[in-house]
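Quiz preparation item.
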């Protein structure tokens, strides 16, 4: 959009009452909003990209949409540098306009509830399987004993098998009689039914947010070094395999629009990020320590077998063993060759349980096969994670205590940095100062810069 449009206020009001930010991915919108708050509601594209870890291209797109919805102002310097100035009520204003933002919490809550119900249902199915298996075993044993007694007395008669009524809700009562009476706090420990699911399937990827965290750290580090860094400074955050080939920096160059250049003083390669060389000042220029942010390394977490308590894992395993043994016993009883010599009622009872047998067998086997396979995969994953973490740690130590050659390279990169603070504002959409500002001339200069 041209500056004339911004000057005339065309970008401030969303057309037909539609929120421009509804077209953004939810993650990008939320990351950008959080970054805007981090930089003090005023910043350049580079400031916001460094704080959010999103690419410069994505950040520019998100800022334009959010600025339109929040009624943010644009400030322009004499060099053509743009700064976005958001009201402190930006999140509230956008939320009031965006139907998508109002619906997302409901959808997220429903998704969390469905996930919880599924985890509990899987754990409940183990208890149900044990009860069904041993009820079937005892019923068949009772029928066999009754048949044997009738046979010894020489009498006949039909066998009336035991009637078992099991409600799904009774399973909660069976395992925990105070289940309905105990309050369910939001931040609580895993209950037994959830621990069964955790024992079998684990607790999800512990590094689900690692990429987001990694790029936030990289953006912050580049900003802290005023937009010019070396490969060694990027190595603690990326997956470097060595310094002879610096191709591992390419993802950072692509995301933050960096370019390599040879330093004339040291003769080494440094990487310049023009978007990070311009800042709006304020909180964006403060060090991360001053803002209470951590400059921690990009370290991945190891995969845990299960986050359930040790006692819960033991209980789940023992109940699984009991279920597995019961399924074997029941299978032998139903597949017993002498079954055909039993009375019709006994055969009918056995056949009624035989329909469930394949499902019970599959559940009993997979209950241990899935955790075993997952355990072996976790070992392989954790070995690779340890290697990557160790490599990043060594890279960080190398930068923290550089040898003379690296120290000279770092100094050259630092001397090559020329960060600009946007201060000489010649136009702002907030003040409506378009009367004495030539928007066409600005557009010409802005295109010339590109």
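Solution:
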């Amino acid at each position: 959009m041209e500056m004339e449009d911004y000057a005339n206020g065309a970008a401030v009001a969303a057309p037909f009452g539609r929120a421009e930010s509804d077209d953004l991915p939810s993650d990008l919108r939320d990351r950008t909003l959080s970054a805007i708050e981090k930089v003090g509601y005023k910043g350049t594209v580079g400031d916001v990209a460094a704080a959010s870890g999103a690419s410069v291209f994505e950040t520019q797109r998100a800022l334009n949409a959010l600025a339109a919805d929040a009624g943010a102002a644009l400030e322009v310097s004499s060099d053509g540098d743009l700064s976005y100035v958001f009201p402190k009520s930006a999140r509230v204003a956008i939320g009031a306009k965006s139907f998508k933002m109002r619906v997302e919490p409901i959808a997220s809550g429903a998704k969390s509830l469905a996930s919880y119900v599924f985890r509990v249902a899987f754990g409940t199915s183990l208890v149900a399987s044990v009860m069904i298996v041993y009820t079937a075993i005892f019923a068949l044993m009772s029928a066999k004993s009754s048949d044997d007694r009738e046979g010894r007395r020489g009498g006949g008669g039909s066998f009336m098998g035991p009637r078992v009524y099991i409600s799904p809700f009774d399973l909660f009562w069976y395992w925990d009689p105070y289940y309905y009476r105990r309050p369910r706090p939001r931040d609580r420990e895993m209950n037994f039914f959830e621990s069964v699911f955790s024992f079998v399937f684990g607790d999800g990827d512990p590094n689900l947010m690692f990429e987001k965290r990694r790029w936030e750290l990289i953006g912050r580090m580049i900003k802290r070094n005023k937009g010019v860094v070396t490969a060694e400074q990027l190595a603690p955050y990326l997956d470097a395999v060595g310094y002879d080939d610096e191709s591992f920096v390419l993802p950072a160059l692509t995301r933050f629009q960096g370019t390599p250049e040879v330093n004339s003083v040291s003769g080494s390669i440094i990487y310049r990020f023009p978007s990070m060389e311009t800042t709006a000042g304020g909180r964006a220029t403060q060090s991360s320590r001053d803002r209470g942010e951590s400059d921690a390394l990009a370290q991945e977490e190891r995969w845990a077998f299960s986050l359930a308590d040790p006692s819960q894992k033991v209980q789940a395993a023992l109940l699984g063993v009991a279920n597995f043994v019961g399924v074997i016993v029941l299978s032998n009883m139903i597949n017993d060759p002498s079954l055909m010599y039993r009375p019709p009622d006994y055969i009918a009872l056995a056949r009624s349980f035989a329909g469930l047998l394949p499902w019970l067998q599959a559940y009993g086997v997979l209950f241990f096969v899935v955790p075993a396979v997952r355990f072996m995969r976790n070992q392989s994953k954790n070995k690779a994670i340890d290697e990557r973490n160790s490599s990043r740690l060594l890279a960080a130590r190398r930068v923290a205590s550089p040898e003379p050659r690296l120290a000279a390279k770092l100094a050259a990169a630092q001397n090559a940095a020329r960060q600009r603070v946007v201060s000489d504002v010649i136009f702002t959409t907030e003040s409506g100062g378009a009367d004495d500002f030539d928007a066409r001339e600005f557009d010409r200069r802005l295109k010339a810069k590109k």
